[in-house]
Design a protein that fits this description.
The chain is α/β, with parallel strands linked by helices and 323 residues long. Helices cover 44% and strands 18% of the residues.
């Protein structure tokens, strides 16, 4: 064999047999895509860009957010799962991953089987809001009225399987009330209808609605989660009110395509712990209503397994189906 091809073959063999730890040590050597299955401009998009910016500074390589919205997150998640498992495509997925397994089984996308878990990045508090002209000043007033008038009150939601739908479903199942679903294609119209009293309530994540509460456009009756929202300290938690409710329905996880080397996954996990400890990031995410979590890939794997099982059960309830 001529000398140059021989040297190239030797170099290639060395690369293929190099310890995976050496590959991780040099990672990343080029820009990384952070795929998001939702539109630009929302609070999750802001979270993704905050994380991408911090990783860019840490790695010295650009981390570029790529938005691929559609089909309740399925389009972007499917594209991320199908990417090369080399660490250069990551996915910031939401709880819709666990719900779509049940709602869209034909897609055959399973977050447990089709991704390498990296980290449970954050959860978001859910905020039960009504218009200022609403007669309900407390959660218990709302529940009492809803029980006396089943199916009469309405709530707005973007779509089945979205965070506002999941949180309201959990609330109805926890309290035994029946509130009628009003689906929207535009979030802005939904918020306008809550403010105007054309729908009775909404149960979105808190980040995009703190401003409306503080401006006196809507009334916040309660938040989910173990603690009160830092920006809304006067709003009680559902737990305080004696309502058994999930800590947060909405969660956001960093994932890689199945087959991404374990050493690269572990490096990203370590670097993400550094990112989540950053004081600037923590202060900014507080204003968006996120609770930063962190932890190991195994913790995320178990979380996703439990979420898939949980929502498979909830999806069979009348509240989930809007009946």
């Amino acid at each position: 064999m001529p000398r140059r091809p021989l040297l190239a073959a030797i170099a290639l063999a060395a690369m293929l047999t190099a310890p995976a730890s050496a590959l991780a040590q040099g990672y990343p050597e080029r820009p990384v895509r952070l795929m998001l299955a939702f539109s630009a401009g929302g609070t999750l998009d802001v979270l993704a860009r905050l994380v991408a910016n911090k990783l860019t500074g840490l790695w010295g390589q650009s981390v570029v957010v790529e938005n691929r919205p559609g089909s309740a997150g399925l389009i972007g998640s499917t594209a991320a799962a199908a990417a090369d498992p080399d660490g250069y495509t990551l996915h910031l997925g939401a709880q819709s991953l666990a719900v779509n397994v049940t709602l869209q089984p034909a897609a055959k996308l399973d977050p447990v089987k089709d991704f390498e878990p990296i980290m449970l990045v954050a959860t978001a508090q859910d905020l039960l809001i009504v218009g200022m002209q609403s007669p309900f000043k407390t959660v218990h007033e709302l529940i009492e009225h809803a029980k006396a008038n089943p199916g009469k009150l309405t709530y707005g939601t973007n779509n089945i399987g979205t965070s506002s739908h999941l949180s309201m479903t959990s609330f109805m199942n926890a309290t035994g009330i029946n509130v009628r679903m009003v689906p929207y294609t535009q979030s802005s119209q939904m918020v306008a209808d809550v403010i105007g009293g054309r729908v009775d309530m909404q149960f979105p994540t808190s980040g995009g609605h703190v401003g409306n509460v503080k401006a006196g456009k809507v009334r916040a009756l309660a938040v989910s989660g173990p603690d009160r929202a830092k920006l809304l300290p006067d709003v009680p938690t559902l737990r305080e009110l004696g309502i058994v409710f999930e800590d947060e329905s909405s969660w956001y996880a960093l994932l890689a395509p199945r087959g991404t080397p374990k050493e690269i996954v572990e490096k990203i996990n370590r670097d993400m712990e550094t990112v989540l400890a950053d004081p600037e990031l923590r202060a900014r995410t507080d204003t968006l209503g996120f609770r930063l979590i962190g932890g190991s890939p195994d913790r995320l794997r178990e979380h996703m397994k439990s979420e898939v099982a949980k929502w498979a059960g909830v999806a069979r309830t009348p509240a989930f189906l809007g009946k």
